[in-house]
């Protein structure tokens, strides 16, 4: 079996030295007639060099011939031990064997291979999330001595990345975005991404954005219908709000973070959305009350939202208390409207429970002050965020007991 080529070990390197990763490797090569290369390559596929980013055929110094490169653990004396079919092909077609050398350098090795060669650990921190031109890493403390080197390697090995950042342990407690440190590249935190048919532009150092949530964004957006009213309580820069408005829903979108609010409005313009979206910069509880009031003011009959989206998993459940008695002053209108419906709530949250649905429903019921119907509610597993920590979305319809509570 061919052995993967690996770069020279450079344990102790803290400042990247690309010259240290030069290496000459050699393998057994079989000289054959150039016209027979295609057929031989097919018949000998399991015995070829088959190394990533290297060709299995090289030029020969003799006319009308080529060198077929064989797996690098094979020696000329091993040819006699190959299966008879292989051996007969080789004996029939080859014009001789020789050792073929290749000079490999920093440009050949992958980021993961370079980091394995430098960092004496089983796992290497080569993974990142890409947000536009930014590579966003979340380095463990054990890798901090190499963080600038890691950033430079990621930058070198990815043509579309011009900035590499690491999430620090500090988090803005009011606006819930992580502070960043630049590991390599230019100091440009204005990212542009495409998602759900929309373009988003924002300062990644001042707002929250997680590209891994695009599937969850799409899942909920697909539930929303044209002309339905959507209330996005923690809208960020608009990953739920903008695509929903673009498909014809009427969206009331809010974020407490002034930077998120600024970029939300900028993205409305960027996507040329001229109607069907109303933006706010309020605390979540204030916004829920204000949005319900503003929407009801547009009609003398019962009118409210079809869906509330609460995508702030660390604390969204705590805001459910706002729905306790939220509509008590509108009960007469509700009762007088034959087709009146109460809204669906989509509340994101984290859980570490071995019974996640029970845990989430119990917590949400306690905060909202009334039992959530387990038979009709849905606890959807969004993603794993850490060992024994899952992100869920609890979807349930507000009940009259919750909405019209008097105390």
UniProtKB/TrEMBL annotation:
Which branch of life, at top level?
Eukaryota
Q: Catalyzes what?
A: guanosine(37) in tRNA + S-adenosyl-L-methionine = N(1)-methylguanosine(37) in tRNA + S-adenosyl-L-homocysteine + H(+)
Locate the residues binding S-adenosyl-L-methionine.
217, 255-256, 283-284, 311
Top-rank EC class of the record's enzyme: transferase
Sorted alphabetically, the keyword list is: Cytoplasm, Methyltransferase, Mitochondrion, Nucleus, S-adenosyl-L-methionine, Transferase, tRNA processing
Q: Which ranges form a coiled coil? A: none
What molecular function terms (GO) are annotated for this protein? tRNA (guanine(37)-N1)-methyltransferase activity
Enzyme Commission numbers on file: 2.1.1.228
Name used for this protein in its record? tRNA (guanine(37)-N1)-methyltransferase
Q: Which organism is it from?
A: Circinella minor
Q: What is the lineage of its organism?
A: Eukaryota, Fungi, Fungi incertae sedis, Mucoromycota, Mucoromycotina
């Amino acid at each position: 079996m061919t052995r993967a080529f690996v770069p020279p070990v450079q344990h102790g390197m803290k400042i990247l030295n690309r010259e240290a990763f030069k290496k000459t490797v050699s393998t057994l090569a079989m000289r054959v007639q150039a016209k027979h290369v295609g057929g031989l390559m097919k018949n000998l596929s399991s015995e070829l060099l088959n190394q990533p980013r290297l060709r299995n055929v090289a030029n020969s110094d003799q006319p009308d011939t080529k060198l077929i490169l064989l797996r690098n653990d094979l020696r000329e004396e091993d040819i006699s031990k190959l299966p008879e079919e292989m051996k007969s092909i080789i004996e029939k077609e080859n014009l001789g064997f020789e050792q073929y050398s290749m000079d490999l350098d920093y440009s050949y090795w992958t980021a993961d291979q370079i980091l394995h060669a430098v960092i004496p650990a089983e796992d290497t921190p080569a993974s990142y999330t890409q947000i536009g031109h930014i590579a966003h890493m979340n380095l463990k403390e054990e890798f901090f001595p190499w963080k600038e080197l890691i950033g430079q390697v990621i930058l070198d090995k990815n043509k579309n990345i011009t900035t590499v950042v690491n999430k620090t342990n500090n988090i803005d407690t009011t606006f819930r975005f992580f502070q960043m440190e630049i590991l390599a590249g230019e100091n440009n935190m204005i990212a542009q991404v495409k998602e759900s048919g929309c373009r988003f532009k924002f300062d990644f150092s001042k707002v929250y954005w997680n590209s891994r949530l695009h599937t969850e964004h799409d899942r909920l957006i697909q539930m929303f219908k044209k002309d339905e009213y959507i209330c996005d309580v923690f809208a960020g820069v608009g990953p739920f709000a903008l695509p929903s408005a673009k498909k014809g829903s009427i969206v009331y979108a809010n974020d407490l973070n002034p930077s998120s609010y600024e970029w939300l409005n900028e993205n409305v313009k960027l996507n040329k959305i001229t109607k069907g979206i109303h933006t706010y910069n309020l605390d979540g509880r204030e916004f829920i009350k204000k949005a319900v009031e503003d929407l009801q003011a547009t009609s003398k009959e019962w009118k409210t939202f079809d869906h509330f989206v609460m995508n702030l998993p660390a604390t969204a459940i705590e805001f459910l208390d706002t729905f306790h008695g939220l509509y008590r002053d509108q009960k007469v209108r509700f009762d007088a409207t034959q087709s009146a419906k109460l809204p669906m709530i989509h509340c994101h949250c984290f859980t570490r429970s071995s019974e996640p649905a029970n845990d989430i429903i119990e917590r949400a019921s306690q905060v909202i002050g009334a039992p959530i119907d387990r038979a009709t509610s849905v606890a959807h597993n969004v993603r794993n965020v850490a060992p024994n920590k899952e992100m869920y979305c609890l979807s349930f319809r507000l009940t009259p007991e919750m909405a019209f509570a008097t105390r």
